[in-house]
Amino acid sequence: MGKKWEKSRRENGKKCGKNRKMGKKWEKIREKWRKKKAKKIGKKPEKWGKMGEKWEKNGEKNQKKWEKRGNMEKNGGKKSRKNGGKIRGRKGKRREVGWAGLYWSVLVRTGPYWSILVRTGPPQLCRWLPVGRLKYYFAVDSVYVGRKLRLLLFPFRHPDWQVRYQQDTPVAPRFDVNAPDLYIPAMAFLTYILLAGLALGTQNRFSPDSLGLVASSALAWLLLEVLSVLLSLYLVTVSTDLTPIDLLAFAGYKYVGMIVGLLAGLLLGRAGYYAALSWCCLSSFIFTIRTLRLKLLSEAAAEGVPVRGARNQLRMYLTTAIGAAQPLLMYWLTSHLLR
Amino acid sequence: MAFTLYSLLQASLLIVNAVAVLHEERFLRHVGWGSDQGIGGFGEEPGIKAQLTNLIRSIRTVMRVPLIALNSITIVLLLLFG
């Protein structure tokens, strides 16, 4: 292989000094290894045979690597020749590897070991973050995403809101459209930030830190909502299987409506914004109430039969309050962007 | 809209400080929110007031020492960086 590369480079008449020399150097090293192998293989046949093979393979790999690098420089060869053979960037600046390059090289070289870590899971992380549970929330496919988006924007005709269970654990979102996931909220959150930047830009109000401000403000509202829902669930002593990640998912679903409202506002002006936002507020309200009703209220009340008792009334109020918080937050987080 | 994560952190630190300052004997007993007042029956689930009282007591117990550390760090950082 080395001879072929040499020939092609010679044909084009380009010179890549250092790397071709490196190729030659590896050729010499391989020769030395071959001699060593031939000499040692008489003494201790098995051990040196294997070592020799390993050296051969390494030598081949390294030779190929240096030849390839020589070829790559050949393609930028004009510039490298002009600057005295050194590697120069597009604007003639010397390409600095710097800390980022160092970090990247360390990351790449430790690559094989990362897979081992990920498979077994670093011990501290497993204690604080339920990584296994997190994987469940991202097990989605495009069919689920399409159905869920349609459900978020039009929840009025969906007949059955119960999450299907499979031997005490809820089924992955891929198989059940009612299961909460974290993919849609995460994507919707990022899209909302980008759209906010777009909205600010079209009104000449954009600056790089304003985008960061919008992002951290939205994140703070999200955290505040999840924490207050958790607190109110604790105070009302509802025994439910809602985890904080579930609540994060439900809180993130309203970003879909916000994106639709923002888009309508950007394209169609104030009237379009109000129309789209009121529709999305209504559907988000109904969606939240219908989803949380099954989880928070007792069985009988969830069926629709009005059950007397202060406890159930309190839970009903709680569900309604959580549902009502969604349109309020949706309006609050988008109205200042479309002034 | 300057509601950032930092202001959320500040507000939460101040609120936790406020809850930690509520003294059990001198204040909560008089209001009726003492930890030994009105625990209620055994089988029934506690009402909101009992839950709140429990929450206040647990925050005071748990956060006493970490609050010292957090407050000192915040004071030093605010002195240094304004």
From TrEMBL, chain A:
The chain crosses the membrane at residues 182-201, 213-235, 247-267, 273-293, 314-333. Keywords: Endoplasmic reticulum, Golgi apparatus, Membrane, Protein transport, Transmembrane, Transmembrane helix, Transport. Residues 1-14, 43-76 have a biased composition (Basic and acidic residues). It holds the Pfam family YIF1. InterPro entries: Yif1_fam. Residues 1-92 are annotated as: Disordered. It is found in: Endoplasmic reticulum membrane; Golgi apparatus membrane. Residues 31-42, 77-92 have a biased composition (Basic residues). The keyword rRNA-binding does not apply. The keyword Ribonucleoprotein does not apply. It comes from the Eukaryota. One of its GO terms (biological process) is endoplasmic reticulum to Golgi vesicle-mediated transport. It is a multi-pass membrane protein. One of its GO terms (cellular component) is endoplasmic reticulum membrane. PANTHER family: PROTEIN YIF1B, YIP1 INTERACTING FACTOR HOMOLOG YIF1 PROTEIN. Belongs to the YIF1 family. Has a role in transport between endoplasmic reticulum and Golgi. This is Protein YIF1. It comes from Taeniopygia guttata.
TrEMBL record, chain B:
InterPro entries: Yos1 (IPR013880). Keywords: Membrane, Protein transport, Signal, Transmembrane, Transmembrane helix, Transport. It comes from the Eukaryota. GO terms for cellular component: COPII-coated ER to Golgi transport vesicle; endoplasmic reticulum membrane; Golgi membrane. The chain crosses the membrane at residues 62-81. It is found in: Membrane. Its main location: membrane. Residues 1-20 form the signal peptide. One of its GO terms (biological process) is protein transport. PANTHER family: IMMEDIATE EARLY RESPONSE 3-INTERACTING PROTEIN 1. Belongs to the YOS1 family. Regulator of endoplasmic reticulum secretion that acts as a key determinant of brain size. Required for secretion of extracellular matrix proteins. Required for correct brain development by depositing sufficient extracellular matrix proteins for tissue integrity and the proliferation of neural progenitors. Acts as a regulator of the unfolded protein response (UPR). This is Immediate early response 3-interacting protein 1. It comes from Ficedula albicollis. The gene is IER3IP1.
